[in-house]
Amino acid sequence: MSGEVIWSEGHSGGSVSALDRGLHYGEGLFETIACLERRPRFLALHLERLALGCARLGLPAPAAGRLRERIEQAAAALPRAIIKVLLTRGPGESRGYRWGREAGTCVIMRFPWSDADAAQGRAGARVRIASTRLGENPALAGMKHCNRLEQVLAANEPGSAEADEALMLSTSGRLICGTMTNVFLIDGEANAVRVRTPEIRTCGVAGVMRRVVMREAARAGLAVEACAMRLEDLSSAREVFLTNARVGLWPVRSLPGRELAPGPLTARLAALMRPLLEAPADG
After folding, report:
1. Is residue 145 within 8 Å of 59, Cβ to Cβ?
2. Cβ atoms of residues 195 and 224 within 8 Å
């Protein structure tokens, strides 16, 4: 899927500087925004997470109004698109880890987006367990920062082509997320069904779609608990689904040694989400 740079700011010559601290040290954040009907989906939530990440990392934040306008202009050019916003600290004033008064770099890229994700979501995900683990660091937890090497290694492990996604554990053995998704488990007895998702306190990305699912479930009277989870929790789950910005809500149809069928609660949550996914909402 080839992309194009739509807009960039913070450097000269139309290309990112070789001195950019995002390139040298991974000092940056990014957002992946699905756009339908020439409109970005959940843009307010993406911009909010981006602003919070800038504050936590001390990154120069672009003007929110101008960034929103640029994203909306990029989305308007295609009926369906994926917009990626990349923010870095920008070219360093000097060599070394300590930052100076860098002005920041912002790049907006646009990628064509077919309807393959929708078909993939309907088919269900084949899921494996990654052997690569996520390092625990609360200072970075939740943010979609540019240090994605753990996910890259996990996504390219032997046997990765046989699955659609890999779930990742932290170094202490907690279930956290997928390489590109958040995960939800449904278990419990018929009169006490639980919907749970791993807490994002020591590592992992707090996904925008994860947030929307939790919000919409609460509005419908379905409490979702964010809690500490381990790999064994998967064995007792009756239903499992994944979320991300592109696919939305993605039922899991197989785990290692076990087949699953999309269950009634997953179907109910998918129905709650469908209007928001098909008619792009701002927040």
Report:
1. no
2. yes
The span from the CA of 72 to the CA of 77, in Å, is 9
CATH of 118-278, one of 3.20.10.10, 3.50.50.60, 3.30.565.10, 3.30.465.10: 3.20.10.10
Q: How far apart are CA 80 and CA 115, in angstroms?
A: 9
- pLDDT tens for residues 70-127? 999 999 999 999 999 999 999 988 888 999 888 899 999 999 998 776 666 677 999 9
In 25-63, which positions are buried (b, 16+ CB within 10 angstroms) versus exposed (e)?
Answer: bebbbbbbbbbbeeebbbbebbbebbbebbeebebbbbe
CATH fold of 4-114 reads D-amino Acid Aminotransferase; Chain A, domain 1 (3.30.470)
Separation CA 101–CA 60 (nearest Å): 9
Judge whether 246 and 82 are in contact, CB under 8 Å. yes
Check the CA dihedral 41-203-123-113 and report its sign.
Answer: positive
